[in-house]
């Protein structure tokens, strides 16, 4: 498939996505889709990269474009990144801020080490 970027109106209702532009934008924020400003459009028009869309949406777009050879098996389980983003958005603003500050201060490896120590303490 040659087309890499899709406008919000091109994605509405595709592959189980919401049927409104507002719903598409909300889902994109929640899942962390890669976006860019649309060229030649005034206002807040954005496009989303096909690489960051859910697999079922990519498959629908590929089939729509006639690129059957590129069709891939749909994975039902969410990606790790999508899971992390979903969990992060479930936190309150203060919890999000505390988590980000901890990661910035201690680093991701320190956070993982601390989680492992907590798990070890609970099993003992």
UniProtKB/TrEMBL annotation:
Region annotated Disordered sits at 11-36
* Domain HTH Mu-type intervals: 2-69
Give the matching Gene3D superfamilies: Winged helix-like DNA-binding domain superfamily/Winged helix DNA-binding domain
Listed InterPro entries: DNA-bd_dom_put_sf, Mu-type_HTH, WH-like_DNA-bd_sf
Q: What is an example of a Pfam family matching this protein? A: HTH_Tnp_Mu_1
UniProt GO molecular function: DNA binding
Q: What is this protein called?
A: Cro/Cl family transcriptional regulator
């Amino acid at each position: 498939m040659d087309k890499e970027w899709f406008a919000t109106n091109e994605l509405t209702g595709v592959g189980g996505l919401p049927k409104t532009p507002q719903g598409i934008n909300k889902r994109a924020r929640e899942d962390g889709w890669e976006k860019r400003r649309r060229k030649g459009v005034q206002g807040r028009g954005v496009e989303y990269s096909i690489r960051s869309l859910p697999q079922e949406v990519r498959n629908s777009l590929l089939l729509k474009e006639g690129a059957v050879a590129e069709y891939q098996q749909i994975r039902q389980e969410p990606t790790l990144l999508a899971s992390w983003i979903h969990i992060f958005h479930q936190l309150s603003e203060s919890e999000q801020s505390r988590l980000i500050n901890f990661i910035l201060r201690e680093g991701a490896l320190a956070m993982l080490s601390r989680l492992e120590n907590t798990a070890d303490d609970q099993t003992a």
